[in-house]
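Give me the fold.
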Amino acid sequence: MEAATNRISKFGIQNLTIKTLAEDIGLSEPALYRHFKSKNEILWSLLEYFKTEMKNRIQSISFKTSDSEADKLRAIFNSQLQTFVSKPAIVSVIFAESIFHYEENLSNKVAEIMDMMQDFVKANIKRGQELKQYNNFIGASILTTIIIGGMRMTVLKWKLSNHKSNLVKDGKAVLEGILKMIEK
């Protein structure tokens, strides 16, 4: 999975093939075909790898009892943004949903990743509203869409700038702007 991630980072998702990946890891193509039948199977495995890593990373964030829900949300997004900066291929694969349009299993895996992040954020918003830390003028589902949409736009702009903008700084600014609107 690391070799596939490195290949995508250096040469783009379109350059990931069984042949190029086999060369990168020093295996023959037939040997790699014993593990993966196609490029799509490699991409599906890569998406599953990213999903598992993201879930474990977010669940392992340790919070202080004094942390507000906003502090927790900042920590979750900081973790995501730092991961994207250190492994930009993750963004290339997860944001390739238009490439996956006709590959239902890949589209479904991207949807699972998005749903998982949405669940983390929505649970945070609901807790914050219940604890009266966030206002409840807008429902948790809509706020979740606004937050994730803002962050997604920030990540996309970073990707399109060829990673020249400061993703962590820009992402924090977007999240802080949204939190100013919803915190009590």
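Residues 104-130 form the longest helix (27 residues).
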